[in-house]
Amino acid sequence: MSVNIQRDNHDPFYRYKMPLIIAKIEGRGNGIKTAIVNNADVARALARPPMYVTKFFGLELGAQTSVNEANDRYLVNGAHDAPKLQDLLDVFINKFVLCSSCRNPETDIIITRDQMLYKDCKACGKRSPIDIRHKLASVILKNPPSSSSSKKGTASAIKKSKKGKNDDEPEEEEGSDDELTKRIAAEAEGLPPSALTATADDDDDDDDDWAVDTSKEAVEQRMKELESQVQGFSLGDDDEEANDTYSQLGHWILEQPEEPSNVEVFKKIKELGIENKHRTLQVLAQTLFNENIISQITERAPLLKKLITGENHEKAFLGGTERFIGLEHPELIPAVPKILHLYYNLDLVSEEVVVKWGSRASKKYVSKDVSKKVRKAAQPFLTWLEEAESEESEEEEEEEDDEDDE
Ligand SMILES: [Zn+2]
User: Fold this and answer.
1) Cα 362 versus chain centre, distance
2) Do 277 and 369 belong together in one domain?
3) ∠ CA(130), CA(70), CA(82), 5° rounding?
């Protein structure tokens, strides 16, 4: 999970995300130090060399640091908790990442011949000076950013490989769809008549799949992530009180130390009085799944089916899915056809709604860019639907003809 690079920007459409800092305090006494476990990931999201981030913390905290890129070890002396480091990171981002003119984070650091530092903005083209009085400036001068760690390179490389995959393997997709259909049928048979009325004990089997870190730090991290997600649950709704209810549901699901059962989730939804609301489905799509979405859809189908009672519900469910995949798990984009196929086979979405959804990119849930990407990925499934439909209608026509003959 991730937060907006500008954490004070609560725009749910904001496309620049970074992981929250994970800090681990090691040792004791004079030797106590803080390991920034995901320093490299955070730095990558900011398109800055990892050492800049760690060194900045050390300079701000007046602490020694140790940077070992090869072993992925980033240490700051002393005990510093993640929220404090996260606040410092905001300062770093402001000074060394965001364009001073348009506040976009897509900037390169440029060192001029006279050893001045600038942020070169790709969005608006402006160059803004970096305050060289900050001690990190001399660190940057001594360790200039290499082009290999630039965000542009990484992002376009990922894009390329994904694009290649979609273009080159349409047949493989179809093949796995057949596999999938078989599996869905098999799994559906194994489902209890209604998992909603089943006892909570039935859900205990799933617990092992969920390795939830319940350490104090991890819980604090999750709480912070939640705060940043609130906006995502409530976009577009004018009614503040209602928004609050959806946030409550989202928070509640994510805050559970263990995956809540279908029964528990349904009870909570009823308690909040939003069991008939379409927006509930958006929240569920954003919170019930993780990277194991494919197996989770089947598990959650009984709950979802009970709540999806109209076209608006289906649309909100697709919208929430779009947000979940497009913003939180872009690595799942190649799995979009499978996900939609599952939704369709489990009667969570109707053909009519999914075809309409696929025919036009929309800015309602994600940026237009992301929306287009998700729909492009969905194409194999939509084509399959179309073909299945045209075969069906041909058969119907033939039948009608037969009747006419008699
Ligand atoms: Zn700019």
Assistant:
1) 18
2) yes
3) 60
Distance 366 CA to ligand 1 centre (A): 22
Q: Read off the pLDDT band of 371 (50, 70, 90).
A: very high
- The Cα–Cα gap between 102 and 6 comes to 12
Mean pLDDT, rounded, for 64-71? 95
Q: Residue 71's domain is classified under what CATH number?
A: 3.30.30.170
Residue 362: what pLDDT? 86
Which residues span the domain enclosing 345? Answer: 169-404
What does the block give as tokens for 302? 């009984």
pLDDT digit string, tens, across residues 50-61? 999 999 999 999
Q: Is 162 part of a structural domain of the chain?
A: no
3 state DSSP class of 32 = coil
Q: What number is the average pLDDT over the span 316-325?
A: 94
Residue 68, φ and ψ in degrees, nearest 5: -135, 90
Structural domain count, the chain = 2
Kindly give the distance from the C-alpha atom of residue 92 to the centroid of ligand 1, in angstroms, as a whole number: 17
Residue 293 has what pLDDT? 93
For Cα atoms 223, 224, 229, give the angle at the middle one, nearest 5 degrees: 95
Query: What's residue 258's pLDDT?
Result: 86
Q: Is the dihedral of CA 232, 238, 244, 246 positive or negative?
A: negative
Residue 378: predicted pLDDT: 94
Question: For the chain, what percentages of helix, strand and coil (3-state, to nearest 5) are there?
Answer: 60, 10, 30
Assess whether 116 and 215 both reside in one domain: no
CA distance linking residue 378 with residue 358, whole number of Å: 7
CA of 109 to the centre of ligand 1 (A): 13
- Quick check: helix, strand or coil at residue 65? strand
- Residue 4 alpha carbon to ligand 1 centre in Å: 17
Chain centroid to CA 305: how far? 23
**What is the amino acid identity at position 285?**
A
**What's the distance, Cα to Cα, between the start and end of the chain in Å?**
63
**Which residues are paired to 36 by β-bridges?**
23
Distance CA 211, CA 197 (A): 26
Residue 287 and residue 253 in contact, taking contact as beta carbons nearer than 8 Å: yes
CA of 135 relative to ligand 1 center, distance in Å: 24
Same domain, 123 and 269: no
Would you list the DSSP string of 129-152? E--TTSHHHHHHHHSPPPGGG-HH
Residue 257 has pLDDT above 80, yes or no: yes
State the maximum Cα–Cα separation within the chain, in Å, rounded to a whole number: 96
- The Å distance, Cα 106 to ligand 1 centre, comes to 8
